[in-house]
């Protein structure tokens, strides 16, 4: 059964979604490979607990999460999976192909729980912005693709939004980060 979509149809009963565009699938796969490489590099500078770069098949996003090491307040009404996923403070960044509130492909970054001052932080590069309804920073995929150095643009987004979460959340950055020198 698909998840994270409205009105899911069990796979074995789905007669609606039968199209397959090999060129679109290959393009998406190549994007994921490129993004994975950058997220792996970003992850490598963190010596605290972090997730592997992982793919959420329900929403089709590729993400990596860093943990502060401190417990987070329990989310009211959260199911058992969400409760465990956000049992500690996190800063997460990823790529999403778009849909719903944000129709086009985008990179996202959020902190949970969101610390005071996070949304007011300045994210890089200049086209990154805080989306109030989603409660996260976004950087549209096309802005990264068109950048002089797409890799640098995405790394700047990852680092600046992580710093916004870690600084406003008062994380022990000296104990969690590898000295880049």
Could you characterize what this model shows?
By secondary structure, the chain is of the alpha+beta class. The chain contains five helices and six strands; from the N terminus they run H-E-E-H-E-E-E-E-H-H-H. It has a six-stranded antiparallel beta sheet. Helix 1 (22-44) crosses helix 4. The N and C termini lie far apart (47 Å).
Question: TL;DR of this structure?
Answer:
This protein has helices at residues 22-44, 80-85, 141-145, 150-168, 173-176, and strands at residues 54-56, 61-71, 88-96, 106-112, 129-131, 136-140. The protein is an alpha+beta fold and 181 residues long.
Mean pLDDT: 94
The count of strands amounts to 6
Give me the strand/helix succession.
HEEHEEEEHHH
Q: In angstroms, what is the radius of gyration? A: 17 Å
Structural class by secondary-structure content: alpha+beta
End-to-end Cα distance, whole Å, is 47 Å
Poorly predicted parts: none
Strand content: 15-25%
- What is the helix content? 25-40%
Shape from CA axes? globular
Count of DSSP helices?
Answer: 5
Strand order of the largest sheet: 1-2-3-4-6-5
Sheet of most strands: 6 strands, antiparallel
């Amino acid at each position: 059964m698909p998840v994270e979509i409205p009105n899911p149809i069990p796979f074995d009963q789905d007669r609606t979604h039968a199209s397959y565009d090999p060129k679109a699938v290959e393009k998406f796969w190549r994007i994921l490979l490129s993004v994975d490489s950058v997220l792996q590099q970003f992850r490598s500078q963190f010596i605290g607990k972090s997730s592997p770069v992982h793919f959420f098949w329900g929403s089709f996003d590729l993400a990596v999460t860093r943990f502060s090491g401190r417990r987070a307040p329990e989310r009211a009404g959260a199911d058992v999976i969400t409760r465990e996923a956000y049992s500690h403070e996190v800063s997460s960044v990823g790529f999403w192909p778009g849909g719903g509130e944000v129709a086009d492909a985008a990179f996202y970054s959020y902190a949970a729980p969101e610390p005071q001052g996070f949304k007011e932080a300045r994210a890089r590069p200049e086209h990154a912005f805080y989306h109030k309804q989603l409660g996260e920073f976004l950087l549209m995929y096309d802005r990264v693709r068109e950048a002089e150095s797409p890799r640098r643009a995405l790394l700047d987004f990852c680092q600046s939004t992580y710093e916004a979460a870690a600084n406003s959340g008062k994380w022990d950055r000296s104990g969690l980060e590898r000295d880049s020198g």
